[in-house]
Write a structure and sequence with these properties.
Largest sheet: none
Oligomer: single chain
Order of helices and strands: HHHHHHHHHHH
Helix content: 40-55%
Shape: globular
Number of helices: 11
Length: about 250
């Protein structure tokens, strides 16, 4: 579980007055997309697809910032709905569709076709802009099986979907999907992500995430983790080096 509250205040003083309410890079979910999420969520309660979708949505939002030419009104609902079709695949067969060394391409295609069908229903129910719906459904129908990108919008959805695998949540999820340790999951996800992305920004994101997870597996980092969260804390230590306190 990602830590949401501090377990200590080593500085000892409240610094919250210096935190901006809406700094650059922090995103929110627009009301019309939050409403679409409420419709989609019941179809995403399959093998952590609900949390996967939210994190992939965040990555897609970041990629949209780098590509102002892309239509966010196509990308964001497409990433929100891209995996709803897994709800139509027997739960016992979902992981067989994507297992290393095997796979069931027929099930991958089924979830794409069903995702497009269900997506049309949900977008219609939500009153979404009818002019955008065909492009959204085209992206959903082929987001995994199609090797090329139809458009920059399709490329962003594909890249966000894949890059999630290297996020902390992605690694956690893949570990439990296939009974892997963290290093094995990192290697599996790396081989399935690097070399398969379209945008330069997603390639950079993926490299950064792989590097961070690689460091987690290093014995030096593991030794620090074993020592506990408060190891090395010393109120009299200048953590910023010779130039004074570090600034973040």
């Amino acid at each position: 579980m990602t830590k949401l509250q501090a377990t200590a205040n080593h500085f000892g003083t409240d610094v919250t007055a210096g935190i901006e309410a809406e700094p650059d890079g922090v995103i929110t979910l627009a009301p019309h997309l939050a409403a679409l999420w409420e419709l989609a969520a019941p179809f995403l309660d399959v093998r952590n697809n609900d949390a996967h979708t939210l994190y992939a949505f965040g990555l897609a939002s970041a990629l949209l910032d780098a590509h102002p030419e892309a239509d966010a009104a196509v990308v964001l609902p497409a990433i929100m709905l891209h995996d709803i079709g897994w709800s139509q695949v027997p739960p016992s067969e979902v992981l067989a569709a994507i297992a290393p060394g095997g796979g069931r391409p027929d099930l991958v295609l089924l979830h794409e076709k069903e995702g497009a069908r269900l997506g049309a229903e949900l977008l219609g129910k939500s009153g979404y802009d009818a002019a955008k719906i065909p492009a959204i459904l085209d992206i959903i129908d082929g987001h995994d099986s199609r090797r090329e990108a139809l458009s920059i919008e399709d490329a962003i959805v594909k890249d966000a979907d894949k890059t999630w695998r290297l996020s902390p949540h992605g690694i956690d999820t893949v570990m439990d999907w296939f009974g892997l340790d963290r290093g094995q999951a990192l290697r599996l996800c790396s081989q399935r992500v690097h070399g398969h992305l379209f945008t330069d920004e997603a390639k950079a994101m993926a490299r950064a995430l792989s590097a961070l997870e690689s460091v987690t597996a290093w014995p030096q980092r593991q030794q620090l983790l074993k020592a506990g969260p408060n190891a090395g804390q010393n109120a009299g230590t200048n953590s910023g080096g010779d130039d004074g306190p570090a600034s973040i």
